[in-house]
Structure formats: structure tokens, C-alpha cells
Write a structure and sequence with these properties.
It is a single chain. By secondary structure, the protein is an alpha/beta fold. It is built from eleven helices and 13 strands. The chain has helices at residues 2-8, 10-23, 33-40, 67-80, 96-101, 116-119, 162-170, 182-190, 201-210, 235-250, 253-262, and strands at residues 42-47, 50-51, 55-58, 63-65, 85-90, 107-108, 122-131, 133-138, 154-158, 175-179, 196-200, 214-217, 224-231. The strands form four sheets. The protein has a five-stranded mixed beta sheet with strand order 10-9-11-8-12, sandwiched between helices. Strands 5-1-6 form a three-stranded parallel beta sheet. The protein has a three-stranded antiparallel beta sheet with strand order 2-3-4. The longest helix is centred in the last third of the chain and has 16 residues, at 235-250. It is globular and about 55 Å long. It starts with a helix and ends in a 12-residue tail after the last helix.
Length: 274
Amino acid sequence: MRKFRNWLWLLPLLALSVLLSSCGTKSVADEDILDRARATNSVTWGVKNDTRLFGLMDISSGEIKGFDIDIAKEVSRRIFGQNVKINLVPVTSQTRIPLLKNGNVDAIIATMTNTPDRQKVVDFSDTYFNAGQALLVKKGSPIKSVKDLNKNTKVIGVQGSNSVQNIKKVAPDAQVLQLSDYAQAFTALQSGQGDALTTDNGILYGMSADNPDYVVVGGTFTKEPYAIAVNKGQRDFLDQINVALSSMRTDGTYKKIEDKWFDNIAGFSDGGLK
């Protein structure tokens, strides 16, 4: 017992040593992204893989394709060169910020709205796409706009998305069903678990294009500026992203990518930087 007591005085010193060593350890998320990407000749993006037009897995090729993907690839090449290896990591609205904060991805381009709350934990680029929240309903639905949402209607949204909070503000009496991703949300709408699905108009037009029995109604009732997110402390990386976005708009590359994905979408007119 006496020997054990003799060691007790060392415990606070050991605890302090562990604390100091952990404080001095630099996490992956804190590393300089520009330096690391140039050293490894690779950059990793968090992207959607379930959102038509913006980021959707092509089953036949196994590739994720969409507007966000093309923007990410072009930005990467303008910053790091044409031969840079571009890694795409699927994220959801709920997982994208945690994955960024943990250093699993270097940047997020995943239909992500720049909001004041999110600015507290990540930094955003200049806006690369202007969206607005809307409603998707089955053809013939009595719901024509958010004004038709009441205590007897159920609206489907996606966990972690800004749209859930928005719909609670504009239609506080409506019931809200939150699911983990857009694929589940649309399946729930088809099976009658909800009366309407709400998110940004660009995403909804993509669903409608694949499923013409479902239509976007009521126009937009919010402004949702999409931006690229990076970790705090990555100012140089963020500046390079903004330079790339600006040059893409100037030389017409942005417009070509926008037209590729949205030119043939019936009724779509609110998106993009004009």
C-alpha cells in the first residue's frame, strides 16, 4: 500500500504531460491544404452522390457526375495543375461538416448553402450557384405553394439541411418528416409518407426531370447561395478557390458547365450566376 501511495504524486504530472503532448499534436484538418495537396499531387472533395444534376452516382460507370463535380474538378486543376489526382468522397447534408472538420475531406462542394450559423464553424468561398427553396409534389396535388401547408400536411426534408429549418419558419403548423438523404426522401414522397418534399429548387428539378409525375410548385421562397466550404485557418486555399471561380466565370468555363447540366431542365430559371 505504501508503494502505491508513493506513486500517487506522479499522477498529476502524467496527466499534465498527456495534455501538453495532445495540445502540441497537429490534426489532419489543421494541416495546410495547399502544401499537402501540392506535395501529394492530390485533393479530396466531399460531394453528394444521390442528387441528380449536382452529384449522382452513375451505376454503369461507377463515377459520380454532376454540376458540383465538374466545378470541383475544374477548380482543382486550376489550382494544382491538370495532372492533380481528384478524390471524391460521398457526403450527406448531415455528415459533410463533420467529415471536413475531421480532415477526411479537404473541401466540400455539395449543394451547401452559406449561412451565418455555418460560418461559425467553416469558411465559405464566393457563391458559385444561386438556388432557392421550393416544393415538389405529385401532379394534381392541392398544394400549390407554401401557403397551402398546414397542420394536416406532412412535408419531407433531409436531416442536416437548411431547408428543414426554413420550412419550419414559413409553415410552422406543418408536420415535418426528416430522412437521411434525398433518395430516401423522394421514395417516401412516392409512397405517400408525405404530401410534399422540400429542398433547393435545382435539386427538385432534377427529381422532376427523372419523374415527370412530380412537379415543382410555388416558385422559390428563400435564397440559397451555394458555396464551397473549407476548414477555418485555410485562408490561402480559400483565396485560390475564389481566384479559380472568378477566372472560370470570366473565360466562359462556368457558363459551359452550367449549360451542360441545366439547359434542358424545363422550368428551371433561378439557378446559376448570370
